[in-house]
Amino acid sequence: MPILEVEHLRKSFGATRVLDDISFTMEPGTALSIIGSSGSGKTTLLRCLNFLERPDAGIIRVKGETLLDAASPASDFQRNIRLKRLHFGLVFQSFNLFPQYTALENVTLAEKLLAREKPDWKDNKSAYLKSIEEHGCALLAEMGLQDRMGNYPHQLSGGQCQRVAIARALALNPDILCFDEPTSALDPELTGEVLRVIRSLADRSTTMIIVTHEMSFARDVADHVIFMDSGTICEQGSPDEVFLHPQQERTRQFLSHYAD
Amino acid sequence: MTFAEQFPIVLGSLNTGFLQTFRLFLITLVGAIPLGMLLAVAEISRWKLLRAFIRTVVWIVRGSPLMIQLLIIFYFPGLVLNTPIWGGGESGRFAAASVAFIINYACYFCEIFRGGIQGIPVGQEEAGLVLGMKPAQIFFRVKLLQVIKAILPPISNEIITLIKDTSLARIIALQEIIWAGQSFMKGSQGISGVIWPLFFTGIYYLAFTGILTILFARLEKKLSYFR
How far apart (Å, rounded) are the C-alpha atoms in residues A165 and A182? Predict the structure, then answer.
């Protein structure tokens, strides 16, 4: 069974159609790269999946459960929206770390707040906090940041910040982890360390959607590639199909800008 | 009367006057900060009419002299409406001055709070949302400290202005420190035609603003651990 099914997603901002009839599916443990020029709707698609935007039409299903059916009333969109969001994680282009918290606190904050909603929170408070703390430390260690846990975001490099943000998103064990141009704010040297982390997540079969302008990375890390153009899926297929044998003229044109 | 004889008498009077100044300062802060927060929340609310109403009130209050507002609030009920709600005496004058100052400063604080809240990058809110936080959690756990850090300098500015603005209450004869200093020009406790007590009040203001400046510098330093 696919872990994610997106059907006929549409979204307009005013008169501008940003997403037009987007449909695709994802199998668990696979990585999907979404490429395309700026303004082609890639980011809006991720924002729809994370319930930061409400699509005008379409269906989003995760593990067979319909999280969103735009045909139902707006109140349905808001109902349990927090729980629906937790199926997805999102890593932002600009990190959006919380500046007043240390790296470790950034990673553990949301998990601690969610633990308070557990019925046995009061009785097992210290046990919960301890395990959350350990989980956070383990995630940061995985990101190669074991020496940076007590640092505040402004004391970290861009690449380190983004790795903290990845750990923060992983802390809530999302079904699907989304990356919105995770390296666009980084210089080439720092880009490498972030891409290595994403690569290692892919090697461990983390289900991921990666919006990126790093073409060689998109090709290398993904099991499936989608090329978007002016709000539509212009072409999709395996990395070799899309990168080596593109069927659409628009895809060839786009990829030619990246030929080196 | 020699200066040495005048000095303790004047000092006693100025101390009493300063106590009234300090009380007006304190009650204004205690009233205007929460009221300003409420106004700020209303000003960024969804309801257009409410926003327009608050904006108009803020415009009128910030756009006219505090001195006129003091006079209107003190005299209007008694002289125009024939219902002297403030009563006579110092306590009535203090109540009227408090109301005028609270309303006036709430409007200034409102704009500072609104600017502080709206100045937080939208990405902070979105990061909280995708991590499954509730709106209240996002406000208190993510945004609030950042807002406080951002508004500390303009707030300290406003509070230092407030100390000096309290002297405007002299216009409705509130017996604050300027009133106390001036009384020795007209004649009080056997001293008359003396102007140095009025100038001497400046020492009180300088000392008070000095203490507050140090206090705010400490607060800002406390919050300098993040950017």
Answer: 10
Distance between B186 CA and the closest CA of chain A, angstroms: 57
**pLDDT single digits (tens) A62-117:** 999 999 998 888 778 888 899 999 999 999 999 999 999 999 999 999 999 999 99
Note the pTM of the prediction, 2 decimals: 0.88
Burial of A242 (0-12, 13-18, 19+ CB in 10 A): buried
Mutate to test the interface with A, among B125, B131, B225 (most CBs of A within 10 A): B131
> CB distance A100–B145 less than 8 Å?
yes
Give the mean model confidence (pLDDT) for residues B93-115: 96
A91: left (phi over 0), alpha (psi -120 to 50) or beta: beta
Q: Where are the beta strands (DSSP E) in chain A?
A: 4-13, 16-26, 31-35, 57-62, 65-69, 88-91, 176-180, 208-211, 224-229, 232-237
When mean pLDDT is compared across A53-57, A204-208, A247-251, A256-260, the lowest value belongs to A256-260
Given its phi and psi angles, is residue A35 left (phi above 0), alpha (psi -120 to 50 degrees) or beta?
A: beta
A52, A99, A172 member nearest B131 (Cβ)? A172
What integer is the mean pLDDT of A150-177?
96
B133 touches chain A (CB under 8 A): yes
* CA distance to partner chain B, nearest, from residue A111 (Å): 8
Q: What is the model's pLDDT at position B18?
A: 96
Interface of B with A in 196-225 (CB under 8 A): 225
- Which of B132, B225, B226 is nearest residue A172 as measured by Cβ atoms? B132
Chain B hits for A51, Cβ within 8 Å:
129
Residue A260 banded pLDDT, cuts 50, 70, 90: low
| pLDDT tops 80 at residue B103 | yes
Question: What is B8-226's CATH number?
Answer: 1.10.3720.10
How far B132 CA sits from the closest chain A CA (Å)?
5
Question: Considering only CA atoms, which of B149, B58, B70, B71 is closest in space to residue B109?
Answer: B58
Instruction: Answer whether B146 sits within 8 Å of A82, measured CB to CB.
Output: no
Is residue B86's pLDDT more than 90?
no
- Measuring CA to CA, which residue among A209, A188, A237, A225 is closest to residue A36? A225
Q: Cβ separation of A153 and B226 shorter than 8 Å? A: yes
Name the minimum distance, in Å, from the CA of A83 to any CA of chain B.
7
- pLDDT tens digits, residue range B184-198? 988 888 888 888 999
The average pLDDT across B167-174 equals 91
Which residue in chain A has the smallest CA separation from B124? A96
* Tokens 């299903």, residue located: A61
